[in-house]
Amino acid sequence: MGASVQKKYDHFIGGTWRKSGSGKTIDVLNPATGDLLTRVAAGDSRDVDAAVAAAREAFVTWGKTTPIERQGIMLEIANRIQKRARDYAEMETMNVGKPIRETVTMDIPLAIDHYRYFAGALRHIQGLTQSIDPDMLHLTLREPLGVVGHILPWNFPLLLAAWKLAPSLAAGNTVVMKPAEQTPLTLLELANDLRDILPPGVLNVVTGYGPEAGAPLASHPGIRKVSFTGETTTGRLILQYASENIVPATMELGGKSPHIIFPDADVERAIEGVLIGVFLNQGEICTAGSRLFVHDAIYDSFVGKLVAKVKGIKVGDPMKEDTQLGAIVSREQMEKILSYVEIGKKEGAILLCGGTRPSDPALSKGFFVNPTIFGGVRNKMRIAQEEIFGPVVSVIRWNDYDAMIAEANDTPYGLASGLWTENLPLAVKTAKALQAGTVWINNYNSLYAGAPFGGYKKSGFGRECAFETLQYYTQTKSIFVSTAEKPIGLY
Amino acid sequence: MILIGGGCCENTAPILMKNFRVGQSDRLLGEADGVKVYAAAEMYPLVSATPSIIDVTDGRGGGSFSLEIPRGVRLTLRPLSG
Question: Mind telling me how many Å the CA of B38 is from chain A's nearest CA?
């Protein structure tokens, strides 16, 4: 194993490691083994205050850097991650439990690309000019906001850090990030790796629990924007904090995304799409295609092939190259997923496969759940309405198009959706009918820098990953320039 | 107060908060030890249909701001058995 993880990490504030005010630490585990991976600082408002102060001081200079300077630095950030790509992949796998083949081919490359994308996009941060009359010129400048606070979830730690850090820095802001307490490792390593290229205070990382470190950050009067990816109620709480200081927010909350199979779907590809939709990252993904709508005409054959394919999924040690489903992030999450299996059974859904922990004794100390399929699900069941956040898919039979669309949209959420058909007009019509921020046609869970990502309805608001994201990280200044040589004559 | 909410990294869970402004569509479910328990509007039909208890488990949840988390425990919603 190449990646060397330190025994403990302090906060990263003002370009240096700083001990926590509390002196307390948080244990960070490897969920595949249950072993201690590292310890990080249990931060509180003292640490947040120091981090915001450092970020504010750094903003005075960073906010005035030229686009060329920032582009160069961001391209170098990408190169730094690329140089240690395998290390980062291993650390992410050890911390989150996701398979090494995913961190190597998806998490890390997507993160690297994000910095490169925004390094280029920032050169297009432009305003407009208008000639109002011979003596009055109007122009706009897009200026950075200041200090931005980010609160991150545990499911894609380095990638989601990139989604937020890249546009923040590109636009000239400085940043305080609070990673999830379960998965702070790769962000702390990144902060360390960038010490000689980012001026002190531009990137600050405060680790800690939500109520102790996240709440002070979201409500800090020194920040000019907050972003949050996580669960819905905490999103509401953070919006309340944001309202105290009248700062804008980006919210990326839950999802219960519909995945629709039409009778003419390419079955082999669609089945792979279903697996990508709900077993990638163990299903711990906000966009998971967890409600599978399969047309009556092909239901039995499709579901039969799906179950056979899913039974062959290799669950195992996420550090092994051929593992296809890794560990759930924590014991509590694993137990919650299993409790939803019981809920599903009680509701009358048919357990077609999975629903248990693996029997392999080598996996008994880790937090694993076998890939699970429920058949005969009705859209109003709890397993169809509540986000399970695990490797569980609920199959719903349909035959009436309008009723199916109504059910697909009958969820408080609207993050993503997928559909499989060879009929182009039908695909376009359905894409327009779905109330979701992303529609995947004959694919699922594709992500690409430049494709706006975000939710409809209670999945949140704001868009990440795209050029328009820079609008959320800048503010417009209107400047009127008068070249008049004589008074107007009003008074 | 406690709000039972859902979505993303913790699924349906009771979130214990202070000074949270309860919304017009949040529904009061009852009280637990003198603490008011609400369900977010979209959760209400799902959780009110299943008699449940709020239990305490070891662990630290999935990243919400529930107040008990720094103590190393987590509130959880369990269906009443039987």
Answer: 11
Find out whether A13 and A141 touch, Cβ atoms under 8 Å: no
Catalytic annotation, pick one of A92, A189, A212, A252: A252
Cβ-Cβ contacts under 8 Å, B79 against chain A:
339, 342-343, 346
Q: Which CATH number fits domain A8-253+459-477: 1.10.569.10, 3.40.605.10, 1.10.760.10, 3.10.180.10?
A: 3.40.605.10
**CA pair distance A445, A252, nearest whole angstrom:** 16
Q: Whats the size of chain B, residue-wise? A: 82
Is the CB of B62 less than 8 angstroms away from the CB of A236?
A: no
- Say whether A231 and B57 touch across the interface (CB within 8 A): no
Domain ranges of chain A: 8-253+459-477, 258-441
Domain ranges of chain B: 2-79
**CATH number for the domain running over A258-441:** 3.40.309.10
Query: Is A386 designated active site?
Result: no
User: What pairs with residue B57 in β-bridges?
Assistant: B74
- Answer yes or no: do A236 and B6 touch at CB < 8 A: no
Q: What is the residue whose two structure tokens read 């961001």?
A: A74
Write out the DSSP string of A408-439: HH-SSEESEEEEE-S-HHHHHHHHHHS-SSEE
pTM of the full predicted structure?
0.96
Give ipTM to 2 decimals.
0.96
A443-465 confidence digits (pLDDT tens): 999 999 999 999 999 999 999 99
Instruction: Pick the catalytic residue from A181, A286, A407, A464.
Output: A286
B5, B69, B70 member nearest A233 (Cβ): B5
